[in-house]
Amino acid sequence: MIFSETILAGAYTVEIDRHQDNRGYFARVFCADTFLAHGLKPAVAQASISYNAKRGTLRGLHFQYPPAAENKYVRCTKGAVADVIVDLRPESPTYLRHVIVNLSADNGRGLYIPERFAHGFITLTDDTELIYLISNYYTPGAEGGLPHDDPSLGISWPAEVRVLSDRDKAWKPHSNIADELKGRMNIAVHKRS
Ligand SMILES: Cc1cn([C@H]2C[C@H](O)[C@@H](COP(=O)(O)OP(=O)(O)O[C@H]3O[C@@H](C)C(=O)[C@@H](O)[C@H]3O)O2)c(=O)[nH]c1=O
């Protein structure tokens, strides 16, 4: 596996090293020791699958507030997506900045998303599947989100949005929740409590 840190500290792309032969290939996609050696947390509480029938399906932008915050390790096993992560760590020099990473079954790339990031993706093909390894348990009461077209984030989605859930249409923009977000994402507060 080849790890490359994105411009958002702690968020990594992970390329696979294919051992190819006449049958196809074998490649490691996760190794707890190697993750630790790169400073990534290898904890896995849940693994989940996301299937999307149509191109232009957008899910996000989602996160869980501390102490239920999650690392996510995402891979696309069928089709292709543009994956978007947004840094929501108030102490970070890249607070509110985002990166877009193309994940596909063909490129085999993985994306490691640290805690206190928002995450979303848009499918670039019909019939798209993503697999997540998630470090924490699903905690509906701790969920939060931001609109994918939030002007404060300025994300240029690389495809037309055709399918969006009602929940994802209803997230309040950053300007409405700025103080709450900063307060709830402040790890110093959680360390004290
Ligand atoms: C996220 C999640 C949802 N669910 C349920 C709740 C609901 O009935 C159904 C669909 O949930 P959602 O609409 O939230 O699914 P979705 O919009 O796909 O949510 C996901 O979006 C991407 C961008 C992420 O980063 C994920 O962590 C997750 O938030 O599945 C679980 O049981 N466990 C889970 O971990």
In words, what does this structure look like?
The protein has 4 helices and 14 strands. By secondary structure, the protein is mainly beta. The protein has a 6-stranded antiparallel β-sheet with strand order 1-2-10-7-12-5, with no helix packed on it. Strands 6, 8, 9, 11, 13 and 14 form a 6-stranded mixed β-sheet that branches. The longest helix has 11 residues, at 174-184. Bound molecules: dtdp-4-keto-L-rhamnose. Dtdp-4-keto-L-rhamnose binds at residues 48, 50, 59-60, 62, 72, 119-120, 138, 165, 167. GO terms for molecular function: dTDP-4-dehydrorhamnose 3,5-epimerase activity. It is an enzyme of class 5 (isomerase). Keywords: Isomerase. Homodimer.
Q: What small molecules accompany the polymer chains? A: dtdp-4-keto-L-rhamnose
Q: N- to C-terminal separation? A: 38 Å
Specify the structural class: mainly beta
- State the fourth-level CATH superfamily: Jelly Rolls
Write the layout of secondary structure elements.
Blueprint: E1 2-5, E2 12-15, E3 19-21, E4 24-26, H1 32-37, E5 46-52, E6 57-64, E7 72-78, E8 80-87, E9 98-104, E10 110-113, E11 117-123, E12 128-134, E13 143-145, E14 163-164, H2 166-169, H3 174-184, H4 187-192
What's the gist of this structure?
By secondary structure, the protein is mainly beta. The chain has a single domain (2-186), classed as Sandwich (Jelly Rolls), CATH 2.60.120. The protein is built from four helices and 14 strands.
